[in-house]
Amino acid sequence: MNKNTVARIVGTLKTVTKEAAQRGEIDYDPLGALVKPEGEPVDFVVLTEGEYSKLKAYKFGSQKIQKIADMLIFMCETGFHYRELQNFKVSENVYISASGQKMISILRQKTIKSNPRPCILPFSELAEKMIEKYGGEEMPRISLEKLNSYLKEVDAILNFNKNLTSKVGRKTFATRWLNLGMSKESIATMCGHSSSRITEEVYMRVQDYKVIREMEEAKKNIFDHSTSELIQD
């Protein structure tokens, strides 16, 4: 059992005993003084803008691998987990907003029992194009094991040298929108999270082009401010 699994189990047990003590079901919290062990750093795999552009543009020689690449693109466009990908149906999960835009609303399968929250996000043109390519209603069905296995082939063909799995699409989705300037709260809504903290800690990383863009904007603001002071003087 690895450190991350142990940390997750201990954290869950501490939550249970703490709530039981607060409700008076037990006299005291027996794990109150127990310090949750730290997990090992998790390898954060996300596609850069350049890699995502390459994925979208590349034409795979194998129809099977092209299908897997299309599924990854769809997950990058929607932020879906594997289970949302497999459950998604246009007829059930797409609606028209008051402003006339096509939107997706689908319950996160991971928390559907404990804390059901929908993922609400625009139905992008590219995501719709992927759906239309496969009949207009849903994406292809495939086992998680096969999906992750074939994603390794996608990685090898594109020479990304990354551990591509079904989770990469969701992390790429959240990270892209963060770096494009969307608020963490809106990204949390699209991902179906109860808190933007979860989204930020697990799914988002600031990429270099966001840092560069913000630095250029800061320089421009400094220049504009300095120019304004000179004019006033």
Summarize the structure.
With 233 residues, this protein is mostly helical. The chain is built from eleven helices and three strands, in the order H-H-H-H-H-E-E-E-H-H-H-H-H-H. Among the domains are: 40 residues, no CATH class; 120 residues, no CATH class.
Helix proportion range = 55-70%
Largest sheet: 3 strands, antiparallel
Low-confidence stretches: none
Structural class: mainly alpha
Number of helices: 11
Return Rg in Å: 22 Å
Strand content: 5-15%
Keywords: DNA recombination
Organism: Flammeovirga agarivorans
GO molecular function, one term: DNA binding
InterPro entries: DNA_brk_join_enz (IPR011010), Integrase-like_cat_sf (IPR013762), Integrase_catalytic (IPR002104)
Question: Would you write up a description of this structure?
Answer:
The protein is mainly alpha-helical and 233 residues long. 57% of the residues lie in helices and 6% in strands. It is built from 11 helices and 3 strands, in the order αααααβββαααααα. The chain has a 3-stranded antiparallel β-sheet. β1 (94-96) and β2 (102-107) form a beta hairpin. The radius of gyration is 22 Å and the shape is globular. The termini are far apart. InterPro entries: DNA_brk_join_enz, Integrase-like_cat_sf, Integrase_catalytic. It comes from Flammeovirga agarivorans. Keywords: DNA recombination.
